[in-house]
Each structure stands twice: as structure tokens, then as C-alpha cells.
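Subject: for your reference before the review

Hello V.,

The reviewers asked for a structural picture of the protein, and I figured it would be easier to keep everything in one thread rather than splitting it across files. Below is the amino acid sequence we used in the manuscript, unchanged from the supplementary table.
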Amino acid sequence: MKRNLVIAAAATLATGAVMAQSSVTLYGRINETVERVKIGKEKVTEVRDNQSFLGFKGTEDIGTGLKASFLLEAQFNPDDGRAGTSVNQGGSFFGRESWIAISSDNLGRFRLGNMQFSSFYYSTADAVGQHNGDAGTSSDALFLYVGNVKNTVAYITPAIYGTTVEVQYGLGERSATDNTSKAAGNTRSVAVMYDNGGFHAGGGYVKGPLTQFGRLFLGGPTNFNDVDGTNPLNSSQSYGGRAMYEFTPTFNVAGYVNRDELDDGSNKAKRTSFRISSKLSLGASDLHLDVGRANSFSGTSKTGAEQYTFAYNYNLSKRTKLYAYYTRVDNDRNIYYGPGFSSSNQSAGIQTGDNFSSFAVGIRHLF
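And here is what came back from the structure prediction:
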């Protein structure tokens, strides 16, 4: 009897030791706004989701300096409880992000799965989109999301003198029995990021199909309208760089410049875009100012646009904030950048040349 008790106690201690080396965390974000949205001449007051999500992440120490980890994120709409409907959600429960990884402090991290956004996005636009986590109608409407991020292999180096490099390869998969649809092109992406005190910089390159992740992209160069998915623009590419400088712990300025090229194999068009943002913190308050510009595509006149955002945040705690903003996208007559109305057919009635604007008040909670 005593022997059995000793064995049971030893097994319990061993199990506890294994469990102590692994962890699983539930986390997420609920981010809702009430907005007065105007597109062209149409006006709507609506409750909108700003990329709310539920996530699970975990790590396990597997010895010899190696760790196994995973991350799963599911987007949802708190206003009606439905699953998220953005393109990167893709109708899948964990469509927002889902991957598994092996990592080491000395060797870096190797991942397989859905990365949500390309390394190029994280090295440029993500760091500049400071207000509301670059989510919702105040997010960057002019950034072109080039590259497939699902079915992706990714590797990021350990930080060396503040510098990391990430490379990604996304497979444009198609069913072996599908002989009718055109498979999306493969994606190649590389990004470099640097951090040194209050100075942060990044840059990168991505080549693959053009996707817009729920934003509308109407008009533009002839033969480049991919709203219906018939022209995947498999050889599109972007390259650019960004920088941020924190003048004080409460004030910073950031900006990026990107060069984009759309290519369907027969036609090409180029454009340059930039964005500048600033953040000033005064106690519990944050003030944001963002200005962006996309030049016209080469060979097509009046396809440029500008975006302006003014925002105020009041931080109730580290996890919860109240905020308000006004954002506007001024489109030239042959283009439309921006989101649609919050409906099942959000592109209905939207024409090239329409302008977009929204005045919003919201609340965001992280858990």
C-alpha cells in the first residue's frame, strides 16, 4: 500500500513538472463603434465591429533550448454574434490566424500555417497605423495587400543588434481535381526590422496575388479590377520602408513609403503611396493624427486618393479605452479606396469617385 502511494506521488510530481513547462492562454479583443458613415451621397448610422477576435496561444518547453508554440485566432462580430466576415477570415473559424511553430532563442522561429498578414505589412504599414490597431474604418485604406498569407512557411531570425529578418513563402494551393479555376500565385516575402531605443525602422518586399482583406478596390487601371475575383493579379509586388521616432515617451512620429506594381501577366501599372502618423499622450488621453496619399497608377489618370484621420482616446485602464474619431478618404473620379457599408452586400451602389467618411465613437477592451 505504501509502495503504491509512493509511486502515485512520484507520478503526480512528474506530471506537475511536465505541466509546469507548458501553458495555454485565452485572450482576445472586443472592439465596437457606433458610426455615421457616408459613401458618395448615401448616409448610414450603424454599429460596426473593428476586428474583434478570440484567441488561444500556447507554448511548451521541449528541452535543449527548443520551444513548441501555437496560435489560433477567430474573428467575430460582437454586434450580432456572427463569425467574422472579412476576407482574411475566409469563412473559417480560425481564419484570422492559425499556426504552429518551433523556436529557439539562438536559432529563431519556424512557423507553418496562416500568418494573417505578410511580413511586408508588419515591416511597413502596421507600425505606422497607430490608432485603433489599424482596424475598422480608420485603418489604412490606401495600403495594397499583396500576397497570400494562408498555407505559408515562415522563418524569423533572432534579434542581432536590434535587427530581425523574416522570410515567408505562401503556397497558392488548388484542389488536384479542380481544372476550371485559376490557382492563386505563390507568395514570396522578406522583411527587415530594426529597433534601437526610441528609433524603429523596417522595410521589405512581397510578390504574389493582390488581395484586399475586406476593403473595396474599384476602378483603377484598365483590366485591373479584381472585385469579382476573375483577375487574380498573381504577379503583383510591393516594396517599401518605414521609420518611427519617439521624441519623448509620450510623443512620436511615424511614416512609410511604398511602391506597388500590379501585374496580370499582360498589363502593368505602378503607383507610390505614403502615410504619416503621430501620437501625443497626455495622461490618460491620446491624440492621433494620420495623413495618407496614394498617387495615380501609371497610365491611368485620376486614380489617386488621400486619407485623413483625427482621433482621441481616453484610456480607462491598460486594457480598456473609449475613443472617437473622424476619418475621410477623398478618391479621384476613376478610383474607390475604402470600406463599404456594414451589410451583406457592402459594395452595392458604390461607384468610382465616391468619397468615404465616418464619424465614430467606440469602446475597446483587451482580455
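For the response letter, the relevant points are probably these. The longest strand covers residues 22-39. The helical segments are 2-20, 119-123, 125-128.

Happy to draft the paragraph if you're swamped.

O.
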